[in-house]
Amino acid sequence: MSSSTTRRRSSRLAELAVQATANTSASSDTVDDQPKRKRARISLDYDSEDEDEDEEKVPKLRGNRGKLEKLTEIPLDILFEIFGYLTPYDVLRLARTTKGLRTLLMSKSSSSVWQAARSNVPALPSPLAGMSEPEYANLTFDARCHSCNSLRCENIIWRFSTRLCNRCLPLLFTPTENLTAPDFMPMLWQYKKMHGYLLLDCVPHISITPGKEPFRTASKNLSLERAYLQPLVDRLLNEYRNTKDDSSALAAWIKLKDTKAYEQWHSARLANRSEELEKTRVRRREAWVSYNLDFSLPHSPSSSYSILQRLSKQGWEKEVKFVKEHRSWDFNKHALVYQTKDLTDRIWKNIEEPMTQFMEQIRIIRIRKECRPRYTILRKVYPEYVDLQPPDLLVPIIGDVLPLNLVKEIAEQPCSEEDPLDEDIFQPLLDLLPEISRAWASEVEEELVKIAKATKPDFQPSSLKLATTVFQCNSLYCKERMSYDMILKHSCATSARFTAQGERRPEQFSGQIEDADFFGAMPWNEGGDRVNFDLVGSAKAKVIVEKLGLDPAITTGENLDRGDYAFECTRCKRKRDGRECRYLMRWQKALNHSCKTQFLVKNPREGPEHEAFLRAETEAVFDGDRRHSWGWGARPVQKALACKHEGCSQRFSYDGFKQHLFDVHQKRKVESSDWTWSACATFSEVYKDLWVPVRKTA
């Protein structure tokens, strides 16, 4: 079948060839009068001048694979001569490239190469007894932990010929207090002396500092601040058991291995390396070590120019001078400055924008320091301005009014320290404070909506004031849950020392903190990550609202506060003065209560139990001792109270309210119907733990 198919195919091809020939001859008869069309020639000469310059030829890139293969074909004497100029670590890495080079360099005949390489390292001691040259090079120069293989491990334990990182050291070594010994050892065997040596002096060990990393858990009262390998201790003590009756053998056994030369060399090497890195950092931030930089020198694009010089060229001369005189620590320790890389044009292009932002912060600090007399007046009068506002007006903290142009125009005017300043210079701020407060509240509410949408994309602005809308403080030591109006006044949101992960925020430096400490606060939610929308808290708030018999879709936090709702935790009990007490709390305190919501029971809104709750709350508010013991983040404002009586529209301090109640309303005892909170009262002031004695039943 296949042969016939092949013949038929062959015959068809032959016929096509004949037909094509005939057509060609016929067509040639018709075009004899026309010149033949020339075929385009493709030149294979890449250097030809006739080649089209517009067409770029992309050359093939040869890989690096296999280039070291030819090294083994070089005569050994020449190869060894080349290798003799390397360091031991270079030879070690070279031996790890190919099998051929590894076989060559790991053979005993190549020991001269390792010795020559070792001679290129100044003052490097000879290898430890019983250790080969490659093993010695690996121990001395390869900065990897021999246990977990982590990088940048500089802890060489010469007595054990190993490198261990701080994480592996406490896992493998045992402090003296935790050592165990075989049964044949006497009591207090650690302090037994032989030939003038303590027994533990004869066992290889490392010195430690108890109470500090990596032996933080070790007792600080150790008589011997050492750590040992327990398996090695067991083995050496068994050897001691076999030699303790033979004085000559025992003397040989207790002979200590001297590793001081190696330890001194390694310490000197690390010190030299640290010095080199510090010189690089100095070159990076300053072209000359001297602080008196000559900026009149001709400037040209060069990698020798430092960060300070480049910033000065951009117009930050005053800030650079201020940095040198007052904020050198902040600048030198900046993450983009404190690096061990020389500054190049490419690196500067990458760090120019963040360094410019840093200098903008320095400019703010410089101006505020130069205008400190006027800012001191603002710091004094602003709390007074706040106390003059209506009780229901939420006023921003001083950190949010500092960036206002109105404040800058007044505070940053040139002034002499000798000229007295009038405290009324900020009167325009007092006149516009209600308008400023409403604009600020609108801005931060919009920011809260964005924060909520980041977690819950379908969040609507109309839901912001609902009781089921709960935000949480991101501070590592706070994590309080609260409604939107309380998070606007939360102290962590304006704290200069806010921390979310146990470390200082990267954008904060000591200059900013000192400046914020002077004024008492930073702008609200500085950095944008101090507050987050809490889904768990919102779900818990929904359960709380439902327990009150209200509709979560329409109930606001203000409804719950004005309704004087309270909860009792049936799980929490306490005795005071021999009486059983109930644990009562308002709804936002219940959000942060550790017990499950199933233990929360609504407290009656009428009758003796409700009156006992209001009475206990009033006593807690006006108890001076309890005011000073409020929790983390507590920052009571000066005048957090308002009077409920008709005709009273001002804010009061705690003592001031008592005096007002007596002078104006002729009352000595404060009751819950007399007072309420002003708009600036914080979470720690409003929501407290209340222990109410259980009412005796007949």
UniProtKB/TrEMBL annotation:
F-box domain: residues covered: 68-117
Locate the compositionally biased regions of type Basic residues.
1-11
Domain of life (superkingdom): Eukaryota
Q: Compositional bias of type Polar residues: which residue ranges?
A: 20-29
Positions of the UniProt region annotated as Disordered: 1-59
Extract the SUPFAM superfamilies matched here: F-box domain
| Family annotation (InterPro entries) | F-box-like_dom_sf, F-box_dom
Ranges of biased composition (kind: Acidic residues):
46-56
Extract the Pfam families matched here. F-box
- Name-wise, this protein is F-box domain-containing protein
